[in-house]
UniProtKB/TrEMBL annotation, chains A, B:
The keyword Cell cycle does not apply. Belongs to the Cob(I)alamin adenosyltransferase family. It comes from the Bacteria. It catalyses: 2 cob(II)yrinate a,c diamide + reduced [electron-transfer flavoprotein] + 2 ATP = 2 adenosylcob(III)yrinate a,c-diamide + 2 triphosphate + oxidized [electron-transfer flavoprotein] + 3 H(+); 2 cob(II)alamin + reduced [electron-transfer flavoprotein] + 2 ATP = 2 adenosylcob(III)alamin + 2 triphosphate + oxidized [electron-transfer flavoprotein] + 3 H(+). The gene is cobO. Pathway: Cofactor biosynthesis; adenosylcobalamin biosynthesis; adenosylcobalamin from cob(II)yrinate a,c-diamide: step 2/7. SUPFAM superfamilies: P-loop containing nucleoside triphosphate hydrolases. GO terms for molecular function: ATP binding; corrinoid adenosyltransferase activity. Its EC number is 2.5.1.17. CDD domains: CobA_ACA. Required for both de novo synthesis of the corrin ring for the assimilation of exogenous corrinoids. Participates in the adenosylation of a variety of incomplete and complete corrinoids. This is corrinoid adenosyltransferase. Keywords: Transferase.
Amino acid sequence: MNTEKQLPDETNEEHRKRMVRLNEIKDRQLAEATQEKGLIIVHTGAGKGKSTAAFGMAIRSLGQGMRVAIVQFIKGAIPTGEAAFVEKIAAAGMPIEMHTMGEGFTWKTQDRERDIATAMTGWAKAVELMRNPAIDMVILDELNIATKYDYISPSIVVQELLAKRPMLHVVLTGRNASDEVIEIADLVSEMKVIKHPYGHGIQPQRGVEF
Amino acid sequence: MNTEKQLPDETNEEHRKRMVRLNEIKDRQLAEATQEKGLIIVHTGAGKGKSTAAFGMAIRSLGQGMRVAIVQFIKGAIPTGEAAFVEKIAAAGMPIEMHTMGEGFTWKTQDRERDIATAMTGWAKAVELMRNPAIDMVILDELNIATKYDYISPSIVVQELLAKRPMLHVVLTGRNASDEVIEIADLVSEMKVIKHPYGHGIQPQRGVEF
């Protein structure tokens, strides 16, 4: 992808000509890509940005006039900026709904059976939303954590995803995405930590982390 | 991070007790992290989600009552869902502004000198926003591409970031982040491609890609 940079021995005019050729190639690639398809998208890995990028996709979809639904499987005990924001724009009439089912991380609830029941309630809501033909994008936030801890079986998730409407986009976030879900996904990104500031006395920052 | 999973030979009660201990450790770690700080955040790598996660942070910050400004250095020629959305919520009175300076990728403009001029105009706007004490978060979308192509020198960027107000958050996105910027950043995430659907006849999807 660095081919577009001007080369040391290249004049401006040579660079311009090379860019014309590169543009033709890119245009041809794009012309060949004509298939519209609802995607199964997975954001996983230990780095920051998995849920955040899913929320970014939600607003992008809203900007395109699409209808979005979000289920949060783990978070929920603590008020977040994204929840406050979604509430505000939904109240203003934008086609977005958010269902916060989680009661926090498992070391907070300290009750595995309740965690499983909470996760299954969230999953029932997720299924309802995915089967609602009015919805264009469903975000299943931290679902990967619920499958990792065996609160929800990955095979149930895969079965529902395989049966989804062709144009529905489904975004699954959380570290440790199951191999079964990755196998059937169209788009998988891993967020990797290169550097992080916490644990050196710096607290999670408002607006950045929550 | 898998320590919270119930172990095969662990009863529900043993698991509960272990979660109580884990909770104590996490609470202590959080209590020790008391420093509030505006962060320098970098989203880089070849995977999806760099700009999208920055937009997600923008809405999280808005939900927290913070004021946000975005400069787009490369994108701009093509209308996007995020631009439409930001326009809509800004018109509704939310404290967000977006400045789209880019004229598209360099293989579209085919004019290196114009690209440099465009990038420098964007940088002047970025500096103005970072120095505005009313703004809590500035997103410099695709700035890493502008430094990679030598449209803007990384040392100018580093100098301005080092001089920023302590509580200002700055988010820089784009592949090939410069080593100089990574060196001074607080939080760096790399988005990696694990699987992507394009180039197999599937076109970039509305709401997902733009």
